[in-house]
Amino acid sequence: MANAELNVTLREDSGKGVARKLRAQGLVPAVVYGKDLEPCTITIEPKALEKAVSSEAGWNTLITLKGTAAVEGKVVVLKELKRHAIRRTMVCADFHAINLKKKAHFMIPVVTLGTSAGEKAGGMLQILRHELEVICLPNAVPQSIEIDVTKLEIGDVVHVAEVVMPAGVEIPQDVNFTVLTISVPQLS
């Protein structure tokens, strides 16, 4: 699991006008929330946040907050990041404080390994779930969920129950849904 530190400053005021002024200064308004924690409004530098989540773990990076007594030392993960539709600049961010000793839910990207026999025969690999939800301790979050597709033939399907997870990581599932399939090529 990737770790990072992020310097933050506490904001006393909130609302649209305050948020606009912060964005005009090149800062991003954000909120930290979590169990047994009063929501706390903070300000962050966009470049520092980009750097913090630029590792392979992405949004699953454990970020330790520094700089203000209200959230000093809190470990958080980025839960939401809104961007301007045209400029792609950060508009606001939400962080969720987590307990390192309790299991939590994380979204992990699915990565395929190899080229399937079905693809070599003219089929198409279709990934239906690009991310899977897992439950594990925050320090045990995998970078990705790797699925070896080399032995799959045309028409083969991989269901979530067949996905092998590392020790201590489980996939919460009520339904055995399809993760990926090798489909028959469409003739035009």
Explain briefly what this protein structure is.
By secondary structure, the chain is mainly beta.
Please supply descriptive tags for the structure shown above.
mainly beta; 7-stranded mixed β-sheet; 3-stranded mixed β-sheet; 13 strands
* Count of DSSP H/I helices: 3
Main β sheet profile? 7 strands, mixed
Average of the residue pLDDT scores: 89
Give Rg in angstroms. Answer: 20 Å
* Order of secondary-structure elements: EEHEEHEEEEHEEEEE
Structural class: mainly beta
Task: Report the span from N to C terminus.
Answer: 46 Å
The percentage of residues in β strands lies in 35-45%
Low-confidence stretches: none
Number of E-type strands: 13
Q: In which order are the strands of the major sheet placed?
A: 1-5-6-7-3-4-2
| Helicity range | 10-25%
Which outline best applies? elongated
